[in-house]
Amino acid sequence: MTVIVREIRPDVRADLEGFGAVRHSALPFFLITPDSVAYDLAHTHPDARFRPLVAEEAGEIIGTAQVGLLHENPGPLQGFVNVYVHPERTRRGAGTLLVRAAEEYLTGLGATRLLAWVLDGPGNRSFAEAHGYRAGRSAHFLRLDLANGTLPLLQDPPPGVELRTAADFADDPRPVFELDAATTADEPSEAGSAELTDYEAWLEETWRHPLTDLELTTIAVVDGRPAAFSAAHTDGGTRYSTGMTGTARDFRGRGLAKLAKNDTLHRARAAGYTEAFTGNDTGNEPMLAINKWFGYEICATEVRYVRELG
């Protein structure tokens, strides 16, 4: 059978479902739904030039690629190429065709540096290296059994600290945006620190995203100012994921991130979610220690591969 690569069709439900199914099969610890795929296609910032691709064989989607520009990162123009092939449909050439199409598109936009997340396995790593990519930072996926695990006991906030939900800021989310921007700027990344400066884009891409759960997102507020938070994503079923947990620099060392994350995990379990996922840079020892304290276990590792273009 011949494998072809094409753009995803946002108005075709089978494409949205096929894209989500491949990503879920290859990356089961990452939340994705057909509705979230459709939303990303409609609401990703225009400067990202987002162009998801699919590899199709005999009418079946067997591979996917997230392709676009890292427009929030300063410096030389960088692109991202995240390719996943269904584990039962490998060795058909889908991955190579997706990489080739993605690279042609991004180089045509002027990207001089390409980044790709690659699952840490011999076959995946050798594939990336054969296409001219070199290994960089790595990150762990972690899983927590919410249904059967034991969470740390809930603690009362210290004096002057109040736990709220993101939904409490529905009338004015800007303070949450400012906290997210401050913590995102400190995240370790092969691409360099992202700069969140576009409030309206953040509302579209993060705050209103269908996977974002404002009711389960916990924010620690100190003297009326959001100081730490743990963002919750849910798939509408039984799976919950932490999008980001962080603390503003002025409030670090007080256990506020741990306090916020414990609160959201307890409330997620009470709401019926049975699995919790999160991700950490392998060098982020403080956050890894916090997640170990909660009972998370590493379930997979990805490596950020980089290709410098001449």
Count up the helices: 8
Binned, the helix content reads: 25-40%
Please give the number of β-strands: 12
Strand order of the largest sheet: 1-2-3-4-5-12-6-11-10-9-8-7
User: Which radius of gyration do the C-alpha atoms yield?
Assistant: 20 Å
Enter the CATH topology name of the largest domain: Aminopeptidase
Strand content: 25-35%
Could you name the CATH class of the largest domain? Alpha Beta
N-C termini distance: 35 Å
Q: What is the molecular shape?
A: globular
Quaternary form? single chain
**What is the ordering of alpha helices and beta strands?**
EHHEEEHEHEEHHEEEHEHE
Low-pLDDT regions: none
**Can you tell me the CATH superfamily of the largest domain?**
Gcn5-related N-acetyltransferase (GNAT)
CATH architecture verdict of the largest domain: 3-Layer(aba) Sandwich
- The total tally of domains equals 2
What's the main sheet like?
Answer: 12 strands, mixed
- Helix/strand-derived class? alpha+beta
* Mean pLDDT value: 94
Concise synopsis of the structure shown:
The protein is built from eight helices and twelve strands.
Overview of this protein structure:
The protein is α+β, with helices and mostly antiparallel strands. Helices cover 30% and strands 31% of the residues. The protein folds into two domains: 3-111, 3-Layer(aba) Sandwich (Aminopeptidase); 144-301, Aminopeptidase, CATH 3.40.630. Helix 1 (13-26) crosses helix 2 (34-43). The protein is globular, with a radius of gyration of 20 Å.
